[in-house]
Amino acid sequence: MCAERSAEDSMESPGNGIDMSSHVPVMADEVVDFFAGDLNEGLLVDGTAGAGGHLAMLSRALPGMSFLAVDRDPSAVEILRSRFSDNPDVIVRQGSYTEIPEIINELSLGKASAALFDLGLSSIQLDDPQRGFSYRYEGPLDMRFDDSKGEAAAELLNRISEKEIADIIYNYGEEGRSRRIAKAIAQNRPVSTTLELARIVNASVRRGSNKILSRVFQALRIAVNGELDQLNRLIDELNGWTEVDARIAFITFHSIEDRKIKLLFRDTAGYRQYSPRWVVPGEDEVRRNSRARSARLRMGIRT
Ligand SMILES: C[S@@+](CC[C@H](N)C(=O)[O-])C[C@H]1O[C@@H](n2cnc3c(N)ncnc32)[C@H](O)[C@@H]1O
Question: Is-contact 266 303, C-beta < 8 A?
Answer without folding.
Answer: no
